[in-house]
């Protein structure tokens, strides 16, 4: 609901070109400590402590699915804190709708729950099967409107794995990321790969990863050029 007593800071309002006193729906208004959270799982608690000094909380605005102005927050790597602000301004200028932007800590760092809520996020303390840190763990990749932009992978037996449960990709759905769109081209111009191209051998621009039938429509992560040029803030030994 709009919050009449809440006012945007002049600097944030100026970034987005909106009046500070205008009606705003805030989806998240947390301190960094609240947004980052913790875990009762010992390994995850250690991982969170490991990465905490390297993360930043960014306040963003976006066009909600209800066509109202929304205020949210996202946890990202400190190295892309300012870039994140610019990316959200550009999405706002394109009029791209976003359901919500709430730190994943508020979903218990449970990705399925966050995806079911169609919530846009970045950081979560996930390790890959190899034990290495995921790009989300590094705070360097974004999942956007994940219920309408699901993870959809063709398995060796011909079945498909789709996450979140019950989701399906429809290019004309509100908040869908589409290959031939200004939104996808904007992210590509900022040197991010779109996971929706990962199953497309004719991806434009060319991608660094390709696997038949592998589509992660919600996912934006550094391409190789960006990986080579952006020094993420990471603990010693993980850079």
Structure description:
There is one protein chain. By secondary structure, the chain is of the alpha+beta class. The protein contains seven helices and eleven strands. The chain has helices at 10-16, 32-36, 42-51, 81-93, 111-116, 182-189, 224-229, and strands at 25-26, 55-63, 69-77, 100-101, 119-120, 141-143, 151-154, 160-163, 192-194, 214-216, 219-222. It has a three-stranded mixed sheet. Strands 6-11-9 form a three-stranded antiparallel sheet. The chain has a three-stranded antiparallel sheet with strand order 8-7-10, with no helix packed on it. Strand 7 and strand 8 (160-163) form a beta hairpin. The termini are far apart. This is Poly-gamma-glutamate synthesis protein (Capsule biosynthesis protein). Residues 129-200 form the Peptidase M15C domain. It comes from Arthrobacter russicus.
Short structural summary:
The chain is α+β, with helices and mostly antiparallel strands. It has 7 helices and 11 strands. The chain has helices at residues 10-16, 32-36, 42-51, 81-93, 111-116, 182-189, 224-229; strands at residues 25-26, 55-63, 69-77, 100-101, 119-120, 141-143, 151-154, 160-163, 192-194, 214-216, 219-222.
